[in-house]
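Annex B. Sample input.
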Amino acid sequence: MGVKVAKFGGSSLADADHIRKVQAIVQSDPERRYVVPSAPGKRDAGDRKITDLLYLCHTHVQQDVPFEEVYALIEERYLDIVHDLGLDLDLRPQLSDVKKQIAGGATADYTASRGEYLNGIIMAKLLGYEFVDPAQIIFFDEHGRLDADRTQEETSRRLGRHRHAVIPGFFGTMKDGSIKTFSRGGSDITGAIVARGGGAEIYENW
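Annex B, continued. Sample output.
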């Protein structure tokens, strides 16, 4: 049996109905063993992407403007998804911690990365897959460039321990432990890294 890595963009994960479709896609093929999710995208033309809302929270803090109302939209979105999926998952501690970190002056990279991070937790719970934090397997050097060799080695080692896993897209970690994101659309890069590290025969970009 071969291995497939399936990356899903934000529009595919915008709400519980879309996520259920993703679940059906993943479970329809046992070779889809590793899943790379983006943060929830727009539900309609007038909606906001979670990543955009997170960046807005960071900007508010930098300008000493209250961000609680914006963050409340993010919390509501994730909690609605968990509720609508019927998951036995309490995401409030993670949401509270992210809010605390943003309020404390977290970097824009950390703040933006939490969209994928939180969605990854949800997807792992829904699919019954292991959750692998990309901060533990994707590494950047001191200049902010991908350390391809170290990343390949650790990704292969870690995924070798898990038959099925969800690995959020878009970010990794610097040498000092801080979160570093790829450029927008970077979940595609994460998908390619996971495909190589997991020995996939096919990388599907949904």
